[in-house]
Model the fold of this input.
Amino acid sequence: MQFSELYNYSWPPSMLAESIEILAKKAKYISKPVDIPLQFKNIEATDKETLTIWIRKIAEHVGIEAEPVEFLYSDIDDMLYKAAPALIYLPLQDEQRFLIFFKGDKNRLKIITPENKVKSIPTDFVCDIITYEIEAPFLESADNLLLNVGVPKERLHKSKKSIFKEQLGSKRIHNCWILRLSPGGSLWTQIVGAKIPKNIFTIIMMNIIGQILMLLSWFIIGKGAFKGNFDPMWLYALTLLMFTAIPFQLITTWAGSLMSISAGEIFKKRLLFGILKLEPEEIKNQGAGQFLGRVMESESVESLALTGGIVAIISIIDLFTAVTVIKMGIGGWLHTFILFGWIIISIFLYIQYFRKINDWMNLYQEMTNDMVERMVGHRTRLAQEDEKDWHNEEDKILSKYFQLSEDLDKVNIKIHGIVSHGWGIVGFLGIAYLIIIIPPASKSLMAVSIGGIMLASQALTSIVGTMSSIVNITIAWKQVGPLFTAANRKKYKPSSFVISNNDLKKKIDEDDEPVLAAYDINFNYGNYGRSIITNCSLKISKGDRLLLEGPSGGGKSTLSALIAGLKEPVSGILLMGGLDKQTMGIDEWRKRIVIAPQFHENHVLMETFAFNLLMGRRWPPSNEDLEHAEEICQELGLGELLHRMPAGIQQMVGESGWRLSHGERSRLYIARALLQEAEIIILDESFAALDPENLYRAMNCVLKRASTLLVIAHP
Done:
């Protein structure tokens, strides 16, 4: 393949929006055309960071996600075709070009050309283009080395690649963006993409075929029993039917497993995505016990929904088969109406069960929350609460819990006794009554009725477990539902405007714009709360060092949260470089204004010290990122801490990791904010826990590193 041919297959940046839309359609992520704003058709980007911003915004506008990925040089062969659908950046000297591909293997990639045609190109050729920049300094020396040792020319390329994989294998490549469905997007599209309807259809069809085979087996057994002997041919037929049922059962199990895995993946992704969409105000008043309860209930919902869903499908098929068989038996429609009546009675019992288990689950969650909160606050309890009063409330709650458990057990006994086993008695009594009043025309009809009763009893027994799962899911959904539904929130309209850091700095410098300007900002908590911020106006220019002082509860932290985009003002205008949040986009706004909240609202995650430092910058970090982080830590006086930790900056910290003092945590939060290199750094009481020596060092570091600084402190 010639390079000029690959060039003709590639796309310029000005056609990125069109290429992403076409690729999304080809991957079946979207079904309708998307209106492309004019801004997306005139893209001029000089660096990959700005290109990534453009690609993400275009993908967001289309309704999907675009994630930049990096991979090692040694893994490029495997990663390239596994990344589909994706965009590949071609490092050409004169201009930027992109390949878009939607499918591939180790030998060929299927790409889409600007003429909207599908072409198949060699994977190795694309790898050579992508890795050229890394290999270029070593190509001549590698060729000379291999020729000098006598490697034939036809094997030269393969041998050279083997050497490069060994020597350059740890080099990272940043030339790919993967397209995927957003976890918060259309749930039905995700379900279809995971082939869940196909698996459900397979389960239904395999069970229907299984039921037909079972009825045929019953027919053969009944025929032989009534004749008093088995014809060898019928016996062979029975054996064949039994063996035929085995592959259908295996296919059912396989389809059920695939459905469970796919549905579980969608559920977990959407749940995590929904958690990240929650606003701090929604969860800041909840304790560790409530969070633990939500985690436990999410596990319950997933396991019960997946196992109960498959059992429900099979049980319903069994029940319909039972109704059909009973109708064909001696009782006919009368016996069928008795079964329907029994199902109605079962529904009323489950309504009673739902009410009881709802009360039981609410108390159970309250007890879990109380237990965890008491564990977390155990030291405070030892210091402040009299030992003889420790268990007063616990005894009352336990007594109520035992009473509710007893009531729930009684309802459970009724359900299992009446629904599962009671039908057998009622069904056989119905046959006895019909035998007395209307003698059967043949023994075969009586046998059919008995088979129908047994099949209905089996189906009702399965439904008992299924209904219990449905009721438990309904209860658990009260905890999990808000997280799941939060995934499709669209509080802010996606911005079609992109401005790089360099462009923003240039705009501020040339137009003499303030970095941030606020005009008549008002804010209050709730519709009827008192006003916290009233008619506040301010301007922050580049290089300003501002100190905001005031009493507790005066609104200092609220103002900083408004500036950082964590809260929305009731009225007023906020501008950064002359642009509002709707124009810039909330994500870009929060990247350019970074806040280190007060100590109780900031956290050290149970990960490495490096992760806690660089989590707001990028991950995984480059060597330069790690060196920069260590340099700032030294300036903040954390060098001794890094020296003490066995793994240095890679030491695990957090609740069960390395213990950090109050002052060390405060400096970690300061370093985390500085490492994001934002236009404005806001430090909310970040120096309160530092002794004079460390305070002096931290202030010098902050004044040196922060472009524009706002410090909040008490007088």
The longest helix spans residues 232-277.
